[in-house]
């Protein structure tokens, strides 16, 4: 295996790649690496869904047991849920299935390279390469990787050069994350992306009630189907709000909480309670955090803290 280059350096070596397992993340990264010229020679897939995903996204790749995938790999990608990673690594180490000097990269956001110690002791190059992206299991996953940042952690400059090269090859942007900062890095991403989904889904649910029976271009749009009237109303507003928040920070906050409009906030809480108390509870919690950022009046804080 030849040495890796980074920007303006020699082209990285073509690697034989193995993937454990053929989930949403693993197959998306595998497809992206193949587009960059690497060869995904084997992957593991247990469920019917993962086998179908492997055959669809990586049609030339053999589906093999984990130990055989590892044995064939110059670059082994461990793309399993965080809870499964320690046992997978322990099993690979106990069987010495991974060739020495192979590159082993996991895709966990919360973990650095310390979790790979059992394999590092056997001579592998340990990497943590986490795509800061959500995965749906559809074709857009691989496309989105080309515009994503990747949190990378390595043991030394050589490891960082390898990780950076792999990310740059598939069009992503490598971002170094310190080993001890991986949990906080992961918490921030989960807070922003996962809770955004909950927030949007709750907003859609409430808006559907408000717009029930209304029409769009003469066509009645009701029910729970996605891309309906509620989603169309929210989409430009949410897109603008996200763009403003990322470009302008806290100053992008608008609305009744930012204005200190206690009466409007109290009304919102009342009508949302009628739709679903859980949505009202989420509104209250996020409004309180918004009020704290905005330096709200004691009256508004009293409403949101439910002290009356």
Automatic annotation (TrEMBL):
Domain Putative oxidoreductase/dehydrogenase Rossmann-like: 11-131
Domain DUF2520 intervals: 149-289
Coiled-coil stretches: none
Superkingdom classification of source: Bacteria
Protein name as catalogued: Oxidoreductase
Species of provenance: Rhodococcus wratislaviensis NBRC 100605
Phylogenetic lineage: Bacteria, Bacillati, Actinomycetota, Actinomycetes, Mycobacteriales
């Amino acid at each position: 295996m030849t040495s890796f280059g980074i920007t303006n350096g020699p082209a990285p070596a073509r690697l034989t790649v193995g993937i454990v397992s053929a989930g949403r993340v693993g197959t998306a990264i595998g497809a992206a690496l193949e587009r960059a010229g690497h060869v995904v020679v084997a992957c593991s897939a247990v469920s019917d869904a993962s086998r179908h995903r492997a055959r669809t996204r990586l049609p030339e790749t053999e589906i093999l047991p984990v130990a055989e995938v590892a044995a064939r790999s110059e670059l082994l990608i461990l793309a399993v849920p965080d809870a499964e990673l320690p046992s997978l690594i322990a099993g690979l180490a106990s069987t010495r299935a991974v060739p020495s000097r192979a590159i082993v990269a996991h895709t966990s956001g919360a973990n650095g390279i310390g979790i790979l110690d059992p394999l590092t002791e056997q001579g592998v190059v340990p990497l943590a390469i986490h795509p800061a992206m959500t995965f749906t299991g559809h074709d857009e996953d691989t496309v989105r990787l080309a515009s994503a940042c990747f949190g990378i952690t390595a043991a030394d400059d050589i490891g960082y050069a390898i990780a950076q090269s792999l990310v740059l090859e598939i069009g992503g942007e490598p971002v170094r994350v310190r080993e001890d900062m991986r949990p906080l890095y992961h918490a921030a991403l989960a807070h922003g992306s996962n809770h955004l989904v909950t927030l949007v889904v709750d907003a859609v649910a409430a808006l559907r009630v408000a717009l029930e029976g209304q029409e769009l271009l003469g066509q009645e749009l009701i029910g729970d189907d996605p891309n309906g009237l509620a989603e169309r109303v929210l989409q430009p507003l949410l897109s603008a709000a996200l763009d403003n928040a990322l470009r302008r920070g806290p100053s992008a906050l608008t609305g009744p909480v930012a204005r200190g409009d206690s009466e409007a906030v109290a009304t919102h809480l009342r009508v949302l309670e009628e739709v679903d108390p859980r949505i009202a509870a989420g509104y209250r919690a996020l409004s309180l955090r918004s009020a704290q950022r905005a330096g709200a009046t004691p009256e508004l804080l009293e409403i949101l803290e439910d002290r009356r």
